[in-house]
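Step 1: inspect the first sequence and its tokens.
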Amino acid sequence: MKTGVIILFHNYENELEPKVLIEQIQQLDTIPICLVNNESKDNTYDIVKDIRDHCPNVSVVNIKKFKSDLSAIRAGARYLLSARKLKTLGYINTNLIPVDFGLAHLFEDVISYREQLFKSRLPLLKPNNTNIRNQLFSIIDELHRLEAV
């Protein structure tokens, strides 16, 4: 099953650990990942571009005018759907990750539970369906369901 992952960032420079994240993303090299920068005022955009430069399965969408989290996630979904043939799309909103937990720890769980996370019981994308919102699933919520987080 071909699954894409969208990761939303907004002013996340201080929490990002690029070297660790690059290593973790490289373990998921068969999964297309879209890093969405939602008008960060810090250096988040530069950091996610650097991650993209080290990981061939990563693309970056830079939103220049701040949007709601859902709108920003949908922008990443539209990009991934136009660039790849995908059956499922999961997203991670970094704004919802507790600071003491961190994205690196969350990614460890994604790697450990990738088989269960991306099983066919998750929402399947329907061709020509323009309602992207109904086709996404929260990776954080799914990890909670799996009792990983």
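Step 2: inspect the second sequence and its tokens, then contrast the two.
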Amino acid sequence: MPTGSQIPPWSFFRQAVDYYTSMPGRIPDTTSTIRVMVKAMTNYSADRRIKDRFSASCLRVQLRERAFFGRGKQPVAVTCLDLNRYGMAVLCPRPVDSGAHLFLDIEGKYISESRIDARVVSCQPFQTGFRVSLQFSYCLDKKGYSRAIDNALSRIEGFYNRFAS
């Protein structure tokens, strides 16, 4: 029996590839082995979230686009559709470019957080305006991580998690 150091590092991967590529109905000549493997092992859901989001329509949120030299567009009051500690979705009266950097001011009962940095993931027409999906910037990389922001957003998420239960 081989020891751990004698097992080729890709043996598990190769077994998985062999299993998934031998599925009935697969035409070997037209399908890449890796593509079949990735497709079979990946969830192609449109929902890429790490955690569930919770409805938070009673939060008051102001959205401000970040700009150079402090010259941004006027703040816009938006309706929070849902949130978790990593992001939120808002209903905005005007479209916002994907990839745009924003500042959010969030207020609610027992909640007041200002200048939360976020990035627009997508913006789509929705009901009476646009659904803007946001990802908080503090969790995008290690350099931008802020424990204070993480704790504040965790408290907000916990409040609405208990509220939803």
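Step 3: confirm your contrast with the notes below.
The chain has two domains: 11-41, 54-164. The CA atoms of residues 100 and 120 lie 5 Å apart.
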